[in-house]
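Entry: Solute carrier family 26 member 11
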Amino acid sequence: MWGPRQPGQRWWQRAVRRRLPVLGWLPRYSLSCLRLDLTAGVTVGLTVVPQALAYAEVAGLPVQYGLYSSFVGCFVYCLLGTAKDVTLGPTAIMSLLVSSYAFHDPAYAVLLAFLSGCIQLAMGLLHLGFLLDFVSCPVIKGFTSAASITIGFNQVKNILGLQGIPRQFFLQVYETLRRIGEARAGDAILGLSCLAALAGLRAMKSRLHPTASTEPLAARASVLLVRSCATARNALVVLAAGLVAYSFQLSGSQPLTLTGSVPCGLPPFRPPPFSKAVPNGTVPFGRMVQDMGAGLAVVPLVGVLETVAIAKAFASQNDYRIDANQELLAMGTANILGSFFSSYPITGSFGRTAVNAQTGVCTPMGGLVTGTLVLLSLAYLTSLFCYIPKAALAAVIISAVVPMFDARIFRTLWRVKRLDLIPLCVTFLLCFWEVQYGIMAGVLVSGILLLYSVARPPIKVLEQGVLLVQPGSSLHFPAADHLQDIIRDRALAGPGSPSPAGRRLGGIPTFSQLGGGSAM
């Protein structure tokens, strides 16, 4: 958390300030911070609206559910969050998980948000944030890299205008390649054009250099214009594609596949569905929970991992501290309250958080501006969303998930610690089959490697008149027999003999101990 700690406070005052971080920065809020927060909030809002529509497609839900999931987290995190840069909302990875565990059914998706929030809130109240440290960097990198390929290829069918493609990855690849000849020319041309425009604007932004105040006004204005267009590239590309689709609609021919009608207005405030009506009866709460199965563990865990990893990365970059347990409370509260507004599970977004930080946000107040912009879009713009081509939304998703694939991690681990390639590859490969199997297998393999280092710690044995035993780490009971064997072998070998300990395999450090980076 940022800001100095106030001396002389009573314990209950410190507890309230710790649970409501807004009380720490709001009394010092200034007009200069308001100006920066307004700019950042509007910029992130222009990013989140088209992304929310696109991520609902990834989740297999009607597009309005992406917007329903994009405003409650902004308001809640403003009050409870400890990182000034983080923005909560729908993300590509969370949408992929919702697609797997909610069965493309809004009732299941909303209930999953509520139950995930309850689990995250309970973890925060019980101070279980330390459990996140047991999910290693190779596991997270393997999952996010596999997810980027799965999500990206899932949108190829929308780029090509194909219908009836299965959602299972391997079947999806087979059917897409088999039916590629059925691609619609209009969708393909528009989708590839949107991809090229997004890539070009991203490249232009990365090559811009800060302008000095001594440079001509025209030069500074042009750089500001290009940077603004590049930052709001998602909104600009979707707007341009919508105008193209609308012009075709007026001419009486429509070669593009459109999003379709979107219900107008704000979502109603109502409890999440604890049962579901079906034509031949009702699905009770217990059956719905049973259907979601492992999703009740995977979804809250991945949501918290993503948020905390992003918060830690930007807190380190901008020199402030976060509280992992408070982040759990904020995430849980956001998901619980969001489920009353028909939200599916949300988490921190790396892309939007980066935009937030780059535009100079001062406090979480920027989230209020972003949430307000989403509400205004729901209230007044939903009638226009029906003209947005699916190919344009697919291009937005592919552009967002491409940076998630980290090829450098494979080279880094090959140089630093090749053994950590095992959990990385296990997670990466199994996630193409089922996400939960990939994550659980990766965590299991990482746990085995961690336990091996406990059972076989590095031990140095020196002879200086007596045998001098120097453990390289703390000793635990699984290492007792190993230590006895080393001492017995060295004692029986006699003086001057090489130590058998030098021929034994020592501890196995994890990638994070060797300077591994952030997960997302």
